[in-house]
Specification:
There is one protein chain. This protein is of the alpha/beta class and 573 residues long. It is built from 15 helices and 16 strands. A hairpin with a 2-residue loop joins strand 13 and strand 14. Bound molecules: alpha-D-glucopyranose.
Length: 573
């Protein structure tokens, strides 16, 4: 790999934010580290086994100590919880299991006073089937005005007994469910790309568009710093709802090659985000939109972050890249180039509430497609190898320019819970796939704070909505805090150095390296990751600044370790 500088993402020159912790040039979101809180599983204040907003408030200082810039909260709105809150029945309130609206206000204030920004989740592709609009749609009957806010169609076949097209739900099974009409007869079908409890909205309907602008304003007025937009690539469907044959795999979005699926990444979505951008820009401060769009290649994803659309999009191509030097080199260079082409910051992410935690995923044989859950009967990935690679991957990620996302618990090195009893599973994927897919519960287990407390300090009682494994004790925060070399302290040091050295606003310059090794410079810091089988010598004159794991007894960088180095050379900025 020869020397090949890539342009840094550049600032738009907007006013610096109000928050205390912003200390790099340009808008905060171009280089921010954003921590995802999954409210059910972060901290439980009342002992019912489900995390809540008061629990988050009580633990905010952890995030300050860790050194992140912002939090993204997964949904806390009133919901039947058919998909853990991604089925929203009321977009302007808080579900009683998570607290009250006043708690949301208090959380925003408590975060702000600590210099932490807060992004909330917006779920516009579908509502819950318990949303009043859907009740009205059912009651209205075929052709009724209220039905047109959703995607209702007559079925195919003699009695309309077949679904209107062949689309499959992301969670398995048909993407259509037939309703019983008010007169008691079997009637029309409605579209749900996810669970039956998540009917898709019709984004051609002006009332749908107006409603979401109003919801944006509602939360902006309460002081949120932005929105993570759920299934941002799904809102607009191809008008003819044409059949989509290639369904060996359940639809999941990435339009890699060939024709684009009629339910994903339609060009019409962009107009919606341009409207929303105008709304955000009319507010003071630097409020942001972040796309959750499983869209590939990187150039199509970049369309979501053009200057008049969203600010960021999750980089899932990076999350899915194999743990090898060529794969990582390719995805990093492609990601930086694609976002630079539209002037957007690149983002980086390794874990979230939908994927196998990277401390487990990276121990799967290289090249394994990302599995949708791991169960007790499946081969169990090696936790030592996984954690070692995860730490190396995190150091690599945090040395890259742009914005990085962390998922709660990864700072503790938490692995996936791969032996959850099947009867405890709650992800609708498990039932809807006919038990073919274990689903996402394994990354959603309530996190451990204190090794010797009930529920490992998750809450005051020994209650947890998903069972916690006994090995959670060794990962608990109080076992790692202040312990040199612990995963938690490695994260903390990485975040501090990233901030001090301006890595988030820097530039990647690739340097010559042997096969199996990635080596680049960002500012005055050199970053080396060894993916190869053999240890590698530190470059001549290098001073070790930080490492994801110990060097070997001869002072070399072992396999699956990332080091941050300083080399005394003039001319490096
Ligand atoms: C997004 C969410 C996921 C949810 C789905 C449907 O992919 O991240 O958790 O199940 O949307 O809302």
């Amino acid at each position: 790999m020869s020397e090949s500088p890539l342009p840094a993402t550049t600032s738009t020159g907007a006013e610096p934010g109000v928050a205390r912790r912003v200390d790099a040039p340009g808008p905060w979101w171009r280089h921010a580290v954003i921590y995802q809180i999954y409210p059910r599983s972060f901290a439980d204040s009342d002992g019912d086994g489900i995390g809540d907003l008061p629990g988050i408030i009580a633990r905010l200082d952890h995030l300050v100590e860790l050194g992140v810039d912002a939090v993204w909260l997964s949904p806390f709105y009133p919901s039947p919880q058919a998909d853990a809150g991604y089925d929203v029945a009321d977009y302007r309130d808080v579900d009683p299991i998570f607290g009250r609206l006043a708690d949301a206000d208090q959380l925003l204030a408590a975060a702000r006073s600590r210099g932490l920004r807060v992004i909330v989740d917006l779920v516009p592709n579908h509502t819950s089937s318990a949303h009043p609009w859907f009740g009205a749609a059912l009651a209205a009957g075929p052709g009724g005005r209220e039905r047109s806010r959703y995607v209702f169609r007559d079925g195919r076949g003699p009695d309309g007994a077949e679904p209107p097209n062949d689309w499959q739900s992301v969670f398995g099974g048909p993407a259509w469910t037939r309703v019983t009409e008010p007169d008691g007869r079997p009637g029309q079908w409605y579209l749900h790309l996810f669970d039956t409890g998540q009917p898709d909205l019709n984004w051609d309907h002006p009332e749908v568009r107006a409603e979401f602008v109003d919801i944006l304003r509602y939360w902006l007025d309460r002081g949120v710093d932005g929105f993570r937009v759920d299934v941002a690539h799904g809102l607009v469907k191809q008008a003819d709802l044409a059949d989509w044959k290639p369904q060996d795999e359940p639809v999941s979005g990435p339009g890699t090659e060939g024709p684009r699926p009629p339910m994903w990444d339609q060009d019409g979505v962009h107009e919606i985000y341009q409207d929303w951008r105008r709304v955000l820009d009319s507010y003071p401060g630097e409020r942001i939109l972040v796309a959750e769009a499983w869209v590939q290649p990187a150039e199509r994803l970049a369309a979501y972050v053009r200057p008049d659309e969203m600010h960021q999009a999750f980089n899932f191509e990076y999350l899915e890249a194999s743990w090898s030097a060529p794969a990582q080199y390719a995805v990093i260079t492609r990601s930086l180039a694609a976002s630079a082409a539209v002037g957007a910051p690149t983002t980086w992410v390794l874990s979230n509430h939908d994927v196998i935690r990277h401390a487990t995923r990276l121990a799967l044989p290289i090249g394994t497609p990302r599995p949708r859950g791991i169960g007790v009967d499946d081969p169990q990935p090696d936790p030592v190898l996984g954690l070692r690679r995860a730490r190396a991957a995190t150091l690599l990620m945090l040395s890259l320019p742009g914005s990085a996302y962390l998922y709660q618990g990864e700072e503790l090195g938490l692995p996936e819970h791969t032996t959850l009893p099947d009867e405890s599973r709650q992800d609708p994927t498990w039932e809807r796939s006919g038990h073919a897919e274990r689903g996402r519960d394994g990354c959603r287990v309530p996190i451990p704070w204190e090794a010797d407390a009930p529920s490992y300090g998750f809450g005051p009682a020994d209650a947890s909505w998903l069972p916690q494994p006994t090995l959670w004790a060794e990962y608990a925060l109080d076992r790692q805090r202040g312990v040199p070399g612990s995963t938690y302290e490695v994260y903390r040091t990485s975040l501090r150095l990233r901030r001090e050295r301006g890595l988030g606003t820097g530039t990647v310059y690739w340097l010559e390296s042997p096969d199996g090794v990635l080596y680049f410079r960002n500012g005055a810091l050199r970053v080396l990751t060894n993916f190869g089988a053999d240890p590698v010598e530190l470059p001549e004159g290098a001073e070790l600044v930080h490492a994801s794991g110990p060097l070997d007894p001869d002072g070399r960088v072992p396999t699956d370790v990332t080091v941050w180095l300083r080399l005394d050379e003039a001319g490096e900025d």
